[in-house]
Specification:
This protein has about 90 residues and is α+β, with helices and mostly antiparallel strands. The protein is built from 3 helices and 3 strands, in the order ααβββα.
């Protein structure tokens, strides 16, 4: 039986795929009211997600994952799934 070729994923241009540290800091400041002390790329720099580490506050140090998705629909779906998993 012949196997069908696997569907190839389109490679995303590097500039579009990643989130820069400056972008992550600005988004956090706008949405959360605080800029992270550090931004890391746990999955590699080509990923659309970064780890943002904030200074210790009243609740202690906090780490958030900041992710950019291609479509608003995909972002909403992911947010819904993450809220359900909480």
């Amino acid at each position: 039986m012949a196997r069908k070729p696997a569907m190839a994923r389109k490679a995303m241009p590097e500039k579009r795929a990643r989130i820069s540290a400056a972008q992550a800091r600005e988004v956090c400041a706008k949405l959360l009211g605080a800029k992270p002390e550090a931004v890391e790329w746990p999955g590699g720099r080509s990923r659309r997600s970064v780890r943002a580490r904030f200074a210790p506050g009243a609740q202690g140090a906090q780490t958030l994952i900041v992710t950019r998705r291609q479509s608003r629909q995909r972002a909403r779906l992911e947010a819904h799934v993450l809220k359900a998993l909480r």
